[in-house]
Amino acid sequence: xxxxxxxxxxxxxxxxxxxxxxxxxxxxxxxxxxxxxxxxxxxxxxxxxxxxxxxxxxxxxxxxxxxxxxxxxxxxxxxxxxxxxxxxxxxxxxxxxxxxxxxxxxxxxxxxxxxxxxxxxxxxxxxxxxxxxxxxxxxxxxxxxxxxxxxxxxxxxxxxxxxxxxxxxxxxxxxxxxxxxxxxxxxxxxxxxxxxxxxxxxxxxxxxxxxxxxxxxxxxxxxxxxxxxxxxxxxxxxxxxxxxx
Length: 245
Description:
about 240 residues, alpha+beta, Jelly Rolls, 7-stranded mixed sheet, about 20% strand, disordered N terminus
C-alpha cells in the first residue's frame, strides 16, 4: 500500500474476504440474498435487492458506527451486484476506485483509535520496511511491570510507534465495536466471511507496507487523510487511516 504525501497520519481499514482466490472455488450458505461469485465467468451476480437503510435498521441499529456501516454496506452491495466487477476484477485483477465512496471518509479517525486504545486491552504490531527482506514486525509496546496497567498498550505507545513505521491492529473488526459494524456490512453484502485490519501510517513514511500479495481478495479503504502539510504542532496533523477488509 503506497500512501499519499499527507499531513498527519493515515488510517487504513483493510477488509480481507476469506475465500480462496480462484473464483470457481467460492462457496456460500444456502440462504443467500445475493448469488455468490462462484460462477461469475458465466453468471454474474444479480442486482442487490436489500435496501441499505433496511439492512442497517435490522442489523446495526443503535450500534457504534451504524451510520457509516450503512454506507459501507451500500458500496459493497453495489460491487457484489456489478457484473463487470464479478467478471473482470474479482480474484483476477486490481481495481482502483478513485471517486470517494460516500460515508468512508472520517468513518474511523485517530480520535476513535485513541478512545479504544485507552479504554480496552488491545495489542498492535509495528511494521517497518526492511529493504529486500520485506517487512519486519515488532510489538508496539512491552510490559513495563507486573500489573495489568503495566502490561496495557497505551496511546502514547501507539503515537511513538508511528514516528517510523506502520501500526497494525490485526482482527480489529472483532475487537472494536465500531469496526465490527463495518465487518458486518461486508459479510452481508458479499455473504462471505471476512477479517478487518486497521493500519495507521506515520507522517513522512514513504511506503505504508511493501508490495505483496494475499491469498484472499482485499479491499483497502482510506478513512482519513490530508494532502496539505500543516505545522508540526497543528491539531490537523493526524495519522492517515486505512481500513482493510
